């Protein structure tokens, strides 16, 4: 099943996929455009992976001082940065390089501590699509990637759906892609993750307790390009969802 | 003196009075029946600020100009202590089996009271509900470049409390003495005076790109010379007029990270 959380008619609703768009828990069937889409579940800790696709590492290698690693490069984001499907993301006027990142989001369904690789998939409730924007102009070499780059308001897009894990038999064989104004700019496959999903759960749960609603953003493949005000950015993963986002300027935010 | 937002991990889970004299918590904590634990007094996201003490930045010296840093910090350098790290006053801290000592990061926590987005420094304090004591615990590590989450995100690595003291009761949060004691002996003295970004400026520069919500905690930064403690020792962080946060370090059970 595909589940969503939306605002409609003055309230927040749980909804599920429907041939006409979506159906609210109270029975109303609505078009995709009729509702405001929220992140599809109550989000806990947000953990993101840097450099988890071999081709993306190569893409960024020029600026890296580490080129090989034996420990995943994980960092944290906060719930405040999240927005849902069909939302608007602010691009500051003074920046030169702001890019999307299409990522498979893995959602934890039960508390996980000291989980072994072979048991890890049992701790997943489902999957979603994330578009984890970065503003590279603000990159500094302390606690990389610093929150001013990766944790800006409106810069983590999540949704549209939370897809039940049972409906995703092959999470390591999903094609993902990004389209900017309808043109494919990024393509990859989840089989090319350096640390796969069980490895990430085993690694993270070896030192911290993962809770229900915690999310692992599993990294992005090669093909990140700058986006500009007015661009419509679609991050899409086969079988998981098609997540649409629009880039807006400072004026929308009174800046 | 008044405190707000306080609750005890009482057997019945009953929150105590929302306002009580600060001394009351000390008295309560020393009565046998209530020695067990407090709940953390805040429920939002906990953010840390790196190198916001002038002496902590100075301690890096010319390192800031060479690889891997290549330049001194420009914007506030923030990090997140995830929810699994947050515990209350008197809750034991488990020392992981792979770390003989833990670094004790004593700092003042700003507790946000109103949604703060793109707030100017002038007037920023109006968005502050109050202040609390935070122990930002780390596995000691040398580099600030890209430290592993393993160093700062272990379960229980962010004691907070005992309480949130209302802003009105802390007339100058940018001039508070902080002491760290291990087993009763003071091992570090610092102050919130001399921050690279004093509290109003820090709130302004953070909320320029990231909204802070009611209940979020923004740590102002740890001074240089953070002490270390081992399993079996009790760490007490006292901030003048804000509170005294006490946690005992205990060894991990065998085979537990």
Question: Could you characterize the architecture of this molecule?
Answer:
The complex is a heterodimer of chains A (255) and B (257). Chain A contains three helices and 19 strands. Chain A is 8% helix and 39% strand. Chain A has helices spanning 54-60, 147-150, 197-205; strands spanning 2-8, 11-18, 21-24, 29-30, 36-38, 46-50, 73-77, 82-83, 87-90, 98-99, 102-108, 124-132, 134-135, 156-164, 175-180, 183-189, 215-217, 232-237, 241-248. Chain A has two domains: 1-38, FAH (SH3 type barrels, Roll); 41-253, Fumarylacetoacetase-like, C-terminal domain (Fumarylacetoacetate hydrolase, domain 2). Chain A starts with a strand and ends in a 7-residue tail after the last strand. The model of chain A has no long low-confidence stretch (mean pLDDT 94). Chain A is globular and about 50 Å long. Chain B is mainly β and 257 residues long. Chain B has one domain (22-63, 77-251): Fumarylacetoacetase-like, C-terminal domain (Fumarylacetoacetate hydrolase, domain 2, Alpha-Beta Complex). In chain B, strands 2-1-11-6-7-8-3 form a seven-stranded mixed β-sheet, with no helix packed on it. Residues 1-21 of chain B have low confidence and may be disordered.
Number of strands of chain B: 14
Shape of chain A: globular
Q: Give me the Rg of chain B, rounded.
A: 18 Å
Q: Give the ordered list of helices and strands of chain B.
A: HEHEEEEEEEEEHEEEE
Please report which band the strand proportion of chain B falls in: under 5%, 5-15%, 15-25%, 25-35%, 35-45% or over 45%. Answer: 25-35%
Number of domains of chain B: 1
**Could you say how many structural domains of chain A there are in total?**
2
SS class of chain A: mainly beta
Strand percentage of chain A lies at: 35-45%
CATH topology of chain B: Fumarylacetoacetate hydrolase, domain 2
The CATH homologous superfamily of the largest domain in chain A is named Fumarylacetoacetase-like, C-terminal domain
Percent helix of chain A, as a range, is under 10%
Kindly report the spatial arrangement of strands forming the biggest sheet of chain B.
Answer: 2-1-11-6-7-8-3
Question: What's the overall average pLDDT of chain A, rounded?
Answer: 94
Could you name the ranges of chain A where pLDDT drops below 50 across 5 or more consecutive residues? none
Tell me the overall shape of chain B.
globular
Number of strands of chain A: 19
What is the mean pLDDT of chain B? 88
């Amino acid at each position: 099943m595909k589940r969503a959380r939306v605002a409609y008619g003055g309230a927040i609703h749980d909804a599920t996929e429907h041939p006409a768009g979506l159906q609210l828990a109270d029975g109303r069937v609505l078009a995709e455009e009729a509702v405001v889409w929220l992140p599809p579940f109550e989000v806990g800790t947000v953990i993101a992976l840097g450099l988890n696709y071999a081709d993306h590492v190569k893409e960024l290698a020029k600026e890296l001082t580490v080129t090989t690693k034996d420990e995943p490069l994980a960092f944290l984001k906060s719930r405040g940065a999240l927005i849902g499907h069909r939302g608007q993301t602010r691009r500051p006027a003074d920046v030169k390089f702001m890019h999307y990142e299409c990522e498979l989001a893995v959602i934890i369904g039960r508390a996980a501590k000291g989980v072994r690789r072979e048991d890890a998939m049992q701790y997943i409730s489902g999957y979603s699509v994330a578009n984890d924007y970065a503003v590279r102009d603000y990159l500094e070499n302390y606690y990389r990637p610093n929150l001013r780059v990766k944790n800006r308001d409106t810069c983590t897009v999540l949704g549209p759906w939370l897809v039940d894990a049972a409906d995703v038999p092959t999470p390591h064989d999903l094609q993902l892609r990004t389209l900017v104004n309808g043109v494919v700019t990024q393509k990859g496959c989840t089989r090319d993750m350096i640390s796969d999903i069980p490895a990430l759960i085993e690694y993270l749960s070896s030192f911290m307790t993962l809770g229900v609603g915690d999310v692992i953003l599993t990294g992005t493949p090669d093909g990140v390009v700058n986006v500009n005000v007015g661009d419509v950015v679609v991050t899409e993963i086969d079988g998981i969802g098609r997540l649409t986002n629009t880039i807006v300027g400072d004026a929308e935010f009174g800046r | 003196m008044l405190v707000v937002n306080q609750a005890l991990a009482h057997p019945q889970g009953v929150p105590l009075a929302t306002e009580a004299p600060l001394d009351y918590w000390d008295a309560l904590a020393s009565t046998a029946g209530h020695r067990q634990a407090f709940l953390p007094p805040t429920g939002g996201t906990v953010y840390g600020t790196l190198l916001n003490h002038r002496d902590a930045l100075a301690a890096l010296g010319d390192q800031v100009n060479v690889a891997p840093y290549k330049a001194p910090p420009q914007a506030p350098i923030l990090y997140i202590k995830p929810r699994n790290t947050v515990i209350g006053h008197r809750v034991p801290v488990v020392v992981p089996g792979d770390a003989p000592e833990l670094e004790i990061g004593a700092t003042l926590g700003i507790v946000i009271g109103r949604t703060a987005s793109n707030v100017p420094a002038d007037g920023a304090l109006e968005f502050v509900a109050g202040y609390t004591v935070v122990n930002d615990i780390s596995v000691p590590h040398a580099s600030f470049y890209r430290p592993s989450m393993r160093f700062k995100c272990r379960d229980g690595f962010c004691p907070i409390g005992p309480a949130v003291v209302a802003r009105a009761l802390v007339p100058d949060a940018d001039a508070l003495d902080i002491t760290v004691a291990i087993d009763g002996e003071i091992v570090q003295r610092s102050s919130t005076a001399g921050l690279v970004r004093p509290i109003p400026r820090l709130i302004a520069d953070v909320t320029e790109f990231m909204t802070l919500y009611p209940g979020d905690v923004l740590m102002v930064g740890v001074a240089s010379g953070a002490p270390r403690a081992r399993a079996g020792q009790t760490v007490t962080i006292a901030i003048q007029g804000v509170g005294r946060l006490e946690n005992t370090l205990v060894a991990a059970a065998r085979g537990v990270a």
